[in-house]
Specification:
alpha+beta, 4-OT-like_dom, Tautomerase/MIF_sf, two-stranded parallel ribbon, Macrophage Migration Inhibitory Factor, isomerase, 87 residues, 2 helices, 4-oxalocrotonate tautomerase, 16% strand
Length: 87
């Protein structure tokens, strides 16, 4: 029974992207570890762990929520991606 954990900064993925990621990682595990057996799907656990931006660093820089929103677009309260503001 595989357990897959994906760690990311909170605010990078919206709800639809998380769903797609969970489904595609599951598909990949079925294909590789389950050797294509569709019954293997019920044994695959996939988890997305989201950490606060202040807990991460990229090149020594701590991303701020504004930096994340500027790069990926902000999320609304329901976790849906808002349109990025045009400069």
């Amino acid at each position: 029974m595989p357990y897959v954990t994906i760690s990311t900064v909170r605010g990078i993925f919206d709800v639809a992207q998380k769903q797609a990621l969970l489904e595609r990682v599951t598909d990949l595990m079925v294909e590789i570890e389950g050797q294509g057996n569709p019954d293997f799907r019920r044994n695959v656990w996939v988890k997305i762990e989201e950490g606060e931006p202040a807990s991460w660093s990229l090149g020594g820089m701590i991303p701020t929520p504004d930096m994340i929103a500027g790069t990926f677009g902000a999320l609304d309260a329901g976790g849906r991606r808002l349109a990025k503001a045009k400069a």
